[in-house]
Amino acid sequence: MYEYEQRVKISRLEPCPVKVTFYTDNLFRGIVDIAKTRPEQIEPIAVATLADSLYIVNGHMRVKALEEAGHDSALAYLIPVKEIADVVRMHVELNMHGSINPLKMLDAVHFLERYHAEQSISKRYLELAKKKLYPKVRDGWDEFLVDACKRNATVELPLYVIERIAKFESEKEQITATTVIMDSVKNLKDRKFVFPAPSDLEVIMLSIAPRYREKKITVFEPGESEKGWPKINKKEAEDLVRGSSHTGIVRCKCGNRLLLNTKTHAVSSVTDDMKNRCIKLEEGDPSEPVYAIPLPTIEFLQARSGDHLKFLKIKSKKELERFVRTIREGTPLRLVIVSPK
What 3-state class would DSSP assign to 273? Predict the structure, then answer.
């Protein structure tokens, strides 16, 4: 509940520990002009009182404008709170319908999570806060927005833009996506500051993501001893996978043969599929079967460690002909055609 409206000294006011709003220079200069000529029209700010401290929870720009206009006090509604997390939570709640910077909102989420006070944060921001946004990407957006606020009358960074960038797992992809999106905004005519609509943004992002997500396959084959394969038990095999940085399949010989998924850390036994000349998982997901490529096929493909293998579903002769036409002249290529007929 608000207490009675009071006038407080600007020198006593402290900013909210995490500010989620941003404003343009154009808007700020307009409020400064009002503060100089008609200060009575400046609406009261909201201030959280915590012990002897006064925190601005709504009205940071008004306070700065009043100060620049030469005023040493501001009208304020005082709101008593019990802890510092209440200050940030109240700031978020009072500004949710204003110009929210989603990057700063992520900071607020992390701050409130430390105090177990994130109940007032929307599920959408909580989900986004779980994803990794690389520091270089974050710094790039911060610099971009600072510049945008100087050049444009109104600036808004839609949440869906940051959500889409966060879908990319690698730093390189996030930086590329950020650069492409920024360029699309900078190239608009009439100095407008408008981001592509979600559907248009998705089209742009499809040009960045690789068309084929190639699975890395690492074959672990311990060195031969005088008696053949060294003994490795299942526990040792699992430890091997957990220590691996790959997200693919590791094969080892542990008395019986196992395929180890380095992404899920699952261990599955395998069987020889002699008909198709490959090794197939017994306990894999039926909808996404996993196969180990046999040595004769690898030799035919002339595959080396670190090479990527692409698997394409070709349903007809015409599709195969179209695929062959896309291959650049001089590209080293080996094909294995598997037909069910």
Answer: strand
Contact assessment for residue 238 and residue 244, using Cβ atoms and an 8 Å cutoff: no
Amino acid at 174: Q
Residue closest to 142 by CA, chosen among 202, 112, 101, 185: 101
Q: Are 127 and 48 in contact (CB under 8 A)?
A: no
What average pLDDT score do residues 157-183 get? 92
Cβ atoms within 10 Å of 9's Cβ, excluding its own: 10
Residue 190 CA to its chain's centroid (Å):
31
Contact 296, 284 (CB under 8 A): no
What number does CATH give the domain 5-122? 3.90.1530.10
Which has the closest alpha carbon to 105: 134, 83, 125, 76? 125
SS3 261: strand
**For the packed helices 102-114 and 135-151, what is the interaxial angle rounded to 10 degrees?**
130
Report the half-sphere exposure of 176 (CA within 13 A, side-chain side): 14
Task: Give the span between the Cα atoms of 58 and 72, in whole angstroms.
Answer: 18
Task: Please name the fold of domain 216-308.
Answer: SHC Adaptor Protein (3.30.505)
For 219, phi then psi, to 5°, come to: -105, 120
Tell me the sheet residues that pair with 251: 219, 259
Q: Are strands 278-281 and 45-50 parallel, antiparallel or unpaired?
A: unpaired
pLDDT in tens, 38-68: 999 999 999 999 999 999 999 999 999 999 9
Cβ contact 71:13 at 8 Å: no
Give 253 or 155, the one with higher predicted confidence. Answer: 155
Cite the DSSP H helix spans in the chain: 25-37, 60-68, 84-95, 102-114, 123-129, 135-151, 159-166, 171-186, 198-206, 234-242, 295-301, 317-325
Q: Please, how many CA atoms are within 13 Å of residue 130, restricted to the half-sphere of its CB? A: 4
Round to whole Å and give the CA distance between 314 and 197: 35
Give the integer Cα–Cα distance in Å for 154 and 149.
Answer: 7
Tokens 């957006």 correspond to what residue?
141
